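Section 5.1 Outputs to date
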Amino acid sequence: MAVHVSDPPASAVATPVRFTFDDYVRYTEEHTGDFELRDGVIVAMAPEGDTHMLTRNTLDRDLHRTLDPARYSAFTESSFPCPGWGEGRRPDNFVARGGLLDEGRRPVAADIALTIEIASDEARLKDDKNKTETYASVRVPEYWIVDLLHRNVLVHREPQGINYTFIETKRPGETITTVAVDGLTIAVDLLLRHARSS
């Protein structure tokens, strides 16, 4: 006896599930590892190498020493939500406006003044360049990519749509004075201190 197989009804067709930021936070609390939320999908992060870790922690220490804690809060490897945004990016370092640590709350995209990503290999550099659209779309005023491979820092400012209209490359011996964080100037040499010589 022949069996006729028909197309499944529309209600049986699988549809992908997109996670919210709150789902992502619950997931990270229940699972061991490093994760980001990208377009509603929870993604496991690659392990962090020594050069990347040393650079991130050096920058974190410098930000905590420099910033006025009543006006700015420094974070490392933390995520922040934005209404309607299916992202839970975890910048290597970022600065938020306000004394959020004293307020006891997670920053949201509107609080963010500066995000900094560290690229220690080609895969991370490509990923960090892709994040440019993400940060511009939620109007983060300033975004840096510390490129340890090519020994420079790409400074992005003036977000419009999904792009930054101002991009500048800073090299060893130069300094970066942010326009988004009052009184913050950082030497490029500090940011590249742990970069391997080519």
